[in-house]
Give the backbone structure.
Amino acid sequence: MKTKTFTTFAFFLLLLTTSMNAQNYQKGYIITNEKDTIEGLINLRTDNMNARQCEFKTNEEADKTIYYPGDITGYRFMPNGKYYISHDATIDGQTKTVFLEYLVHGTIDLYYYDSEGNGDNVYYFFEKGGQMNAFTKEPDKVEGVKVIKDNKYVGHVKYYFKDYPMVMGEVDKMTFTQASFIDIAQTYHAETCTPGQPCIIYENQHPDERSIKAEISAFVGVQLATYTANAHVTEEMKIQGVQPVIGAKISVFNPRWSKYLRAQVEVALSRIDATKSRKAAGGNATHTIRIQHMTGNAKVGLECTLPLSKIRPFIAAGLSHTFAFADNSKFTSIYREGKPLEEPYPTRNFYFGGYATIGADYLLKNNHAVTLQASMYFNLENSKTSNDTKIDRLNIIHIAAGYKF
C-alpha cells in the first residue's frame, strides 16, 4: 500500500512539474520588423532555447505568441537586460537566421550563440562594417591523463585585431568566456573611439551568468520514529519515540529551464530511544524492547516549488536511505520468579524507503528564506522477505524549521 501511495505521489509531482517547466516569464519587450517596441512578458529559457524562438505574451492572462528568427528584429529582457536580435550567421558550416545574444553593441558588435545548449559548441561573433567573423573552439579532449585544449581561437582573434596594438595585448590573456570577449571589445573601443564619444550603446552586465543555481538550508526540529519489531518476537511490536533532529539540504535548479522544479539532496541526524513492553502469553513473563541508537538519513529526490511571492509552498518526493549506528538496543524478559534476563536486541543497520515532504519558504529581503517542512520517511520493503523471513521496519515523521541561504 505504501509503495503504491509513494508511486502515485511521485508521479503526481513529476506530472505537475513537467506541466509547468516551460513557464519562466520575465518582463521585456519585442522589437518588430517595423522597429516598433511592444512591452510584455518573455519566457526566459536556456541560451539555446532563447536563440531558437521567443515566447511572448502581452500579459499574464494572454495567450503566448511564438516568434522565430526573422519574424521580429529582436527582443530584450528588462530585469537582467539580456538582448537578442535576428541575424544571419554561419553555424556548423550552414548559414541560417538565428537569435544572436548581444554582448556588446557599439562601433564593433559582439554576439554570442550556444549551438547545442551544453556549452560545447559555442560561437562568438564580431561584426564591424557589416562583416561577421566567427570564433569557436573544439571541446576539451582527454587522452590518457592529459587534457588537450583547443586554443586556436586565440590566434584567430589576434589576426582579426592585428592592426590594434592595445587589443593585441589583451588577446594574450583571454579565455573562451563572455567576459573575456567583452574585455576585447571594450579595449577596441578604448583604442578607436574619440574621447567623450558614446561608442558603446549596450553591454551585457552579467556575462557568463550561470543558469544552474544552488540553495543550501539547515534545519532543526523533532521527529517521531516508529520502529516495528517483527523479526525476533512472536508478535509484532510498534515502538515509538520522539527525539530532536538536525539536518541540511541542498537544492539544485535551473530557473531558465524551470523555476518550479529542482533536485534535492538532504541529510539528517537524530536518535531513537523508545521502549515497549508486552506480557507473554499466559502472563507469566513481561518482555520489553528498548530501541536505542543513532539514526542518519540521506535522501535524494525532486521538489516542486511555487514561487508565488513572499510565501513559497513546496512538495517533494524521492528515495530515502536510513542507517543506524551506536546501537545499544536491549531485549529484557522479566518472569514472576527470577531475575530479569537482558540481551542485546539485533536491530537492522540499513533501511531503504521513500519520502514525501510538504512545506513552505518565507522569503526575506536578502533573498534568503525561513523554511518550515513536514516529512514522512517510510520503508518500501515488505514485512517479509521472499523466503518468508520477517524483517523489522522503521518509519519516521519529522517537523522542522530552518534557514535557507
About this structure: The chain has two domains: 25-203, 211-404. The first helix runs from residue 2 to 20. The mean pLDDT is 86.
